[in-house]
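DOMAIN: structural biology
WANTED: fold as tokens
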Amino acid sequence: MRISQLAERSGVPATTLRFYEGAGLLPADRTPAGYRVYGEDAVERLAFIGAAKHLGLPLEEIGELLGVWEAGACRDVKADLRPRIAARLAGAESRVAELAAFTASLRTALHHLDALPDRASPCDSGCGLLAPPSPPMAGTGAVDAVLASSPHSARAEAEAERWRTAPVACSLRGEGLGERTGRWREAVAGAVRTAMPEGLRLTLPVERTGRIAELAAAEQQCCPFFDFRLHLDGPHLYLEVRAPAEGAGLLGELFGLAA
């Protein structure tokens, strides 16, 4: 096949085929006139490259993997591919935790901004527009999104106790309360529930981290007596929810009871 024919059959642009050749991923023979020609195996090779790229593997690693693939033993490709995917998964989970914490930070900043008075004087440091009183990673109104090995600072631990003195009351009413309750029940559906001191621990798939973090940040705005902690560990998300004794009934109603 000429390069135009391979591009048509594979759906990969000719410019990309030339780039792959230069990167050592797609060898090509040459005609006496200097035109590139490819065998039938090039289509299968491009499909393999495309699948590897979809998994987020860099070209350097794809080249290494192609060397194993060319040997023809599926078990060897599997053995080589597994740790590469595991490494990508760990990186993705780390980014999920960072994004969850950042989302909570933005929601706290927005709530702080809405609560400030509209001053007619010139804007200066006294306005406090960009200085929320409590950073969302360190206390009530926040989501403690951490990896399994991440430590808590002494300040964060101290501020995290504010939920104990918050009034057990929810500012949501009517349809708003029903909608929030429905979203929580959908988000934690199928969770494994375990009792813990003053609360509940729910084990969920890690893919739900973003949704859970968003809900927890929103929940803190209307029900500050809830304390949320998110903990990522491999494929699992552990959501810990605590409340004062007076709020235990509301906690059970919203998140269910331990088995």
User: Anything to note?
Assistant: The radius of gyration is 26 Å. Confidence is low (pLDDT under 50) at residues 133-158.
